Amino acid sequence: MATILSAQCTDVRVNMVTPILFKKYPSPSDFAALKPEQFANRDDVPLKVMIGTGMEPTLPSGQWLAVFATTNLYFHLSTAYGILRSKGVPIGKIDLFAAGL
Fold first, then answer.
1. 93, 81 in Cβ contact below 8 A?
2. Spatial distance between the Cα atoms of 64 and 51, rounded to a whole number of angstroms
3. Fewer CB within 10 Å, N side or C side of the chain?
4. pLDDT at 76
5. What pLDDT does residue 84 have?
6. Cβ–Cβ under 8 Å, residues 45 and 38
7. Residues 13, 6: Cα–Cα separation, whole Å
8. CA 34/CA 4 separation, integer angstroms
9. Is 38 exposed, middle or buried (0-12, 13-18, 19+ CB in 10 A)?
10. Nearest CA among 64, 60, 2 for reference residue 31
11. What share of residues in the chain are helix, strand, coil (percent, to 5)?
């Protein structure tokens, strides 16, 4: 989980968040056991996100997830894909499907 967080913020922020997160959810299975109902009615809760050193937008949680985080994830995936292909790594569309086609 710390690795996923580190892709979205600074190491300083990760080091602030992970002790709290790991105390509440000690293992990935604890985190995965969260139920959708635990997130109900949270879409409008303001979420402030630090991006680098100069941006700190505050967005409703639902908008952050549906727009910002999703777009950011696809940007990084497509960039990594392009870099790997340019370096000759034999990666293709089928590699996007964990179980294959």
1. no
2. 13
3. C
4. 86
5. 92
6. no
7. 8
8. 17
9. exposed
10. 2
11. 55, 10, 35
48 phi and psi, to 5 degrees? -95, 130
pLDDT at 2 over 60: no
Joined tokens for residue 89: 């790594």
> What is the C-alpha to C-alpha distance for residues 81 and 91, in angstroms, rounded to an integer?
8
Distance CA 56, CA 47 (A): 10
Within 10 Å of residue 64's Cβ, how many Cβ atoms? 20
Start-end of H helices in 1-101: 2-6, 11-24, 28-32, 61-63, 70-86
Tens digits of residue pLDDT in 17-73: 788 888 988 888 988 898 989 888 889 999 888 777 788 889 999 898 888 888 888
